[in-house]
Amino acid sequence: MAETVDGKKEDADYKRLQSFPLIRHTDMPEEMRVETMELCVTACEKFASNNESAAKMIKESMDKKFGSSWHVVIGEGFGFENVKKMRSREQKEKGFYEVLDWVEKKRPQYMHQFWRCVFEDHILQLYPTLRILRNSLLDGTFRLYEKPPDVETLTEEEESEGKGEKGKEKSYTRKRTSSVKKGDKQEILTLPEAQLPVTCGDKEGTLYRDKLSRGEKCILSQGRWFTPAGFERFGGKKNNKNWKSSIRCRNTPLKKLIEEGHLHCPQRKSTKKTCVQKNMRFPVSSSESSSPNLETSSSLLEESDAEDVQEQGGRGEGTEFRGRVKEEEEDMADLSVFQAPSLPVTCVSLTGTLYKYRFASGSRGKCVRTEERWFTPEEFVKQEPTLTDGHWKKDILCHGKTLNFLLKKQILHVHSLLCECAKCSTQEQDVMAQNNDDECYVCHSEGALVCCDECPQAFHSHCHLPTVDEDSPGEWICAFCVLRNSQQWRDSSNISEQEAFNAPVSQHILHCHCLLLCVYREDIQKVFVEDPRQTVRRYSEIITQPMWLDRIKQKLESGEYQTVGAFVSDFQLIFSNCSTFNRDSEFGRMGARLKQMFEEEFQKIFSIQ
């Protein structure tokens, strides 16, 4: 029996991640891509050498993992001797990628061992680029895209401070990269260095991140310290009046790095308040102006505010956010509402249920369940037709909070991209299993389940009606999907309730199966499943004509019902007996709720007008 998967998934992405994702990704900034590629080429082509380099250390590490026979694991086909003989960088790069393809296809089971050998501490200390790669893989921030996304994630803090550029996201705790159009540069993935090389015009300098965050003069150039605005003037870009765009690090504007959380400027009270102070020319008290750090910080704040106002000037306020929930008081939020294993979520007009144990990241782990199917958070957002630039962290809401808020509060946890759990697995069987529920639709318990190939439901073979042959080959669809499909091509005109009662069961056996399955599912405590005379004291003394669900199932399967009305009357008998025996007890109210559900489902399933 087949289990389906949304065939066109991100399998290609996952395969790359399993092997050599960062150096394989050609949209990476050229400088970083070449540096990383050359480091790894050098390491790989000298794998068996005694050279005192990263390659030798990696080889020694591999020897420890695989013993002296490591070359047997890698195999003769690894091809490093040929790569080593290539002189031009283009030929070497092409040859190296061919080697990677060979490893991916012939030795995929050793990918994680290889990376663990490369990512040992003493190697990472010598090669910062490898450290960048390791960090982005292990903390779950690295992401490949087949198509460039239109947006980035806005954090709640940044949303409350001011409006960013339309169509962009800002990431904070879980930073992800977004690929760009072919030929463009991609943003820097991770910047662990405390000092960054920066340029503005024809001037070069070094930016000290800690000084920038404290609002001090933070750029050292030609032996002089500058504020960002001062360095902009020093570089001949005074007329720009926007140091965030004028100053670049590795060809990336500082504005981009600030938006993504790589750099931090001093926080300001609010844009509106600062603008009023500047316009009204309020003086600063002597105590406030006495500190040089505070003076510099204030300068930075004013520069930042002026740029924010300038950026907002050409756009209508309010169109940027599309009703996004502000979470300015997130620290005071009642987190108890998020403790349940499953949480209600919305995305504009969409509704679903997020199961926390299934969540792995935006693109891995189908954790959002709708009536139709399971989605990853990214897939769920794409179902909303009104969102052209949606992003799962900001556009999916749970109890009025974004999923980014849930990540920051550690209610949800992003898995590492090196994670080997079933939710992160790219094995076809594991991926397909995520398309269906993890428990039986009828009895709500786990076990060996038969999965429908058209909807997310799953069943124990004996719980479904009719019983499923587990060994049957090919695809299988459940009774509910069969009924839904049949209703699409047969006469869709409604019938009256009396016409339904008079109809022969033989012509509506599918309807009866679905109705009975719905009642089984609703009776979670299994109060009405078995003969009550076996478990309830004095039941026979009060109820002379008992009825229970298993008895109805038996009569239906043996052909004892001639009409739908006779089938329905046995359900009514269960509800009547419950009301008589239990009166105003909790079981009586339970029976009343079950009766109401039964009547509603009967109307739907039989299309009663």
From TrEMBL:
Name of the molecule in the record: Dynein axonemal light chain 4
GO molecular function terms attached to this record: DNA binding; DNA-binding transcription factor activity, RNA polymerase II-specific; zinc ion binding
Biased composition (Basic and acidic residues): 161-172
UniProt main location, coarse: cytoplasm
Low complexity bias locations: 285-301
Family (UniProt): Belongs to the dynein light chain family.
Species this chain originates from: Cyprinus carpio carpio
InterPro entries with a match to the protein in the record: Bromodomain (IPR001487), Bromodomain-like_sf (IPR036427), DLC_sf (IPR037177), Dynein_light_chain_typ-1/2 (IPR001372), SAND-like_dom_sf (IPR010919), SAND_dom (IPR000770), Sp110/Sp140/Sp140L-like (IPR043563), Znf_FYVE_PHD (IPR011011)
